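Hi P.,

Sorry for the delay on this. The queue was packed all week, but I finally got your sequence through. Input first:
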Amino acid sequence: MVEVSGMVVSERLVGTWPITIFRDPCSVGERPRWVAVACEPTQLPREAANSCLVLQYWRKQLHCPPVAEGETPDAALANLLAALNGG
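Then the structure:
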């Protein structure tokens, strides 16, 4: 686990892709969503894990790695792996 701007971020290496998973700052309510990104935590803009605006802006950049969302960290990871594998 890695801490980014006070948030705990899960770091995994799955196959050839580094994976960073964090709570979606755009989700509200009691059931947060999760974001999985195909990058190292150090490649993630520090504010992206804390700011919905920064996350949305960053996702629209050409250099942004593949990103997926899910209702749980495992679901976000599964969605990201499906996207990376062309699914």
